[in-house]
Amino acid sequence: MTAPLIAVALRVIENRGRTRFIQDRAYFDAVTAAGGIPIGIPQGLSDDALHDLFGRCSGLLLCGGTDVDPGRYDESNDAGLTVDVEESLDSVEFLLLNSALTMGMPVFAICRGMQILNVALGGDLWQDLPTQRAGDTTHRMQPRNPGVLHDVTVVSPSRLATITGSAELHVNSMHHQGVRRLAGSLRETAHAPDGLVEAVELDSHPFCVGVQW
Predict the structure, then answer these.
(1) Are the C-beta atoms of 126 and 180 separated by less than 8 Å?
(2) Can you tell me the distance from the alpha carbon of 169 to that of 117, in angstroms, rounded to the nearest whole number?
(3) N or C, which end of the chain is more exposed by having fewer CB within 10 Å?
(4) CA 29/CA 34 separation, integer angstroms
């Protein structure tokens, strides 16, 4: 059986006058360990080339990373709460996600990816949890590291409950944004102790799962 190609959008960084495409290796390693072949999708392709390349893939992985542009959910950034926006990455990932949902292609969305999923389907975000939704649960590790920070309660029945086999998970947390208004077509499948949505699923889709950790 041919291993499935899993699309992963690449970020852009400028360094000493040179433009580089990057993405955390951990995502590629995880896809490979699960039996897939990760394929980086670069920014700057024409729409036709992007659709051609993506059409050869079998799944979409939306990774963690930068903030989602608040303009995507009809808000401004006047207060400077959204601090790290990469509009070109937003454009590519929204296009890939919309294509995947139309095609019925499996989607797994992580952290920023889950936020992209929520916004794409009509939801919105807290631009900055510490200032807009202060609570007892810390959602951003200091300093950033891959350790466990808080628990999440998993809703059953759900794909997440079936996959993990657990009603409670211990997860990392490296975000300052989060789901505020959940898109109407999404279902919450896990939440943090403070009630923040930590996982979602699109029940009308063959496989579309998002997790905040």
Answers:
(1) yes
(2) 22
(3) N
(4) 9
